[in-house]
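Quick one, probably user error.
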């Protein structure tokens, strides 16, 4: 290592406070979405010299960049721009969407240029207003719900708590909020975790952490399940108080066992079965804490009952698991069980998360458009009896064969949408050759959901659930999963015509070829 390289390495290692000397540090920020903009805004405020390189640019953000003094390079980034090379960056901060093998990141590795993500930057400057504790949440599914619940429980106990991260609010915005917070509940995607170091000045030291579950997802980004799993496991590193894991998902237990944690950190399990000491679980319809009480070997604390959760739409098994995980995180921070009980009285799931759209003629219409992978769809399917399943979209390199095989017996019919229909149709033909199977073949976004809903209405029977749980991403035909869900809502509303009995007569379905 040259003297100049060693000096730069020492300088970067010293950047562990808002009050450190960031002045003049040359930083390339990749991407100008919500995260990229927060990074650029933060770094310019710190006095760094910033060049934003982005393939897509929002005009309003571009104008603000000019005002705050950051440079902007509009470039497809399919290669390393000459302007980036000429800028001679000392640091690159990559937005989460850029693959690890991206040309610019590969060039950075070859050139020994440090690459951070927004989470590492936020951790390093977390003391701008005050130094909040961090609670980290990741997993294949249930992250947003668990983050929102945990933050709700903490706030109900009088703490200044901010749900942030992959939930939509950049952690950098929360760190720079002039009001300050006591605790940040941070949702982390595998993309964000990929760039996080496990040790050194940029490594996180969270108060508590959880991996809710782990299943195949984003394999097109990470390259393998092992790489995806290893990224998720990073949240447990250096945890100070509680590593919360899923007793029904042994991979999460192994992650805790393998993690280097701080002295005194405890492993806390959650699951839908009877809890052991140091666990959260369910006993005869009662959600219980056997972890945060002195007499945990012979007693438990009652959180809430399933009967109380039922009218609030919170009794689906995966939702109950999320409640237990969020309760464990909040209890690790000292929130009383009574506060959690009362807070659940007002909690509502996000739109497009196992949301009942209508009940008509004995048929329930449910929007779980947020089930963007097979693991999420499986949890949704398990929550209902006989299902007419609307499935499909962009599979992201994930094989849905096992999902179809596991749930074929509960299906009344399947309606397949999206660009990756062929793989799903083949799976249904292998595992459920007698099942009524229909394809929506249109490429017109405006007609996908009306066609799917009409087909579902024609085959659904009293007592069935028509379930939109696509097990796939939405970007093939929709703007995002929210757009997909809203179009499902609209199509159901139009089909039912506002009639409680749903007397409209949909067209006769034609089986897919």
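Nope, works fine. Designed sequence:
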């Amino acid at each position: 290592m040259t003297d100049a390289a060693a000096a730069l390495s020492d300088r970067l290692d010293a950047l562990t406070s808002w009050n450190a000397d960031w002045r003049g540090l040359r930083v390339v920020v990749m991407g100008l979405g919500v995260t990229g903009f927060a990074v650029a805004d933060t770094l310019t405020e710190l006095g760094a010299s910033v060049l934003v390189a982005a393939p897509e640019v929002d005009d309003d953000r571009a104008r603000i960049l000019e005002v705050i003094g950051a440079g902007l390079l509009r470039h497809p980034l399919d290669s390393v721009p000459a302007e980036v090379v000429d800028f001679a960056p000392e640091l690159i901060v990559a937005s989460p969407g850029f693959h690890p093998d991206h040309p610019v990141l590969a060039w950075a590795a070859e050139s020994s240029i440090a690459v951070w993500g927004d989470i590492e930057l936020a951790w390093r400057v977390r003391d701008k207003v005050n130094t909040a504790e961090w609670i980290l949440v990741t997993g294949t599914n249930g992250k947003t719900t668990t983050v929102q619940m945990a933050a709700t429980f903490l706030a109900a106990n009088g703490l200044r708590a901010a749900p942030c991260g992959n939930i939509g609010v950049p952690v950098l915005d929360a760190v720079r909020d002039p009001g300050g917070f006591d605790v940040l509940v941070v949702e982390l995607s595998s993309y964000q975790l990929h760039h996080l170091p496990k040790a050194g000045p940029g490594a996180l030291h969270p108060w508590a952490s959880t991996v809710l579950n782990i299943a195949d997802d984003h394999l097109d980004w990470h390259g393998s399940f092992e790489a995806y799993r290893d990224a998720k496991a990073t949240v447990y590193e250096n945890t100070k108080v509680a590593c919360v894991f899923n007793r029904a998902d042994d991979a999460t237990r192994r992650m805790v066992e393998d993690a280097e944690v701080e002295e005194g950190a405890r492993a806390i399990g959650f699951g839908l079965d009877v809890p052991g000491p140091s666990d959260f679980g369910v006993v005869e319809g009662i959600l219980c804490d056997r972890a945060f009480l002195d007499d945990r070997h012979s007693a438990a604390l009652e959180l809430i009952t399933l009967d109380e959760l039922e009218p609030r739409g919170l009794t689906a098994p995966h939702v109950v698991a999320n409640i237990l995980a969020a309760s464990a995180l909040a209890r690790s921070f000292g929130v009383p069980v009574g506060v959690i009980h009362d807070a659940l009285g007002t909690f509502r799931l996000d739109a497009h998360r196992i949301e009942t759209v209508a009940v008509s003629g004995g048929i329930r219409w449910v929007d779980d458009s947020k089930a963007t992978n097979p693991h999420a769809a499986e949890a949704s399917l398990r929550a209902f009896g006989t299902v007419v399943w609307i499935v499909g979209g962009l599979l992201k390199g994930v094989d849905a064969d096992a999902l179809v095989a596991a749930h074929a017996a509960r299906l009344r019919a399947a309606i397949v949408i999206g660009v990756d229909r062929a793989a799903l149709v083949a799976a249904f033909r292998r595992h459920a050759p007698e099942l009524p199977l229909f394809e929506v073949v249109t490429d017109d976004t405006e007609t996908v959901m009306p066609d799917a809903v009409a087909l579902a209405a024609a085959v659904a029977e009293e007592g069935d659930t028509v379930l939109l749980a696509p097990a796939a991403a939405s970007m093939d035909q929709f703007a995002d999963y929210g757009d997909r869900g809203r179009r499902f809502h609209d199509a159901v509303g139009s089909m039912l015509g506002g009639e409680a009995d749903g007397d409209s007569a949909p067209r006769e379905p034609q089986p897919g070829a």
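The chain is about 35% helix and 20% strand.
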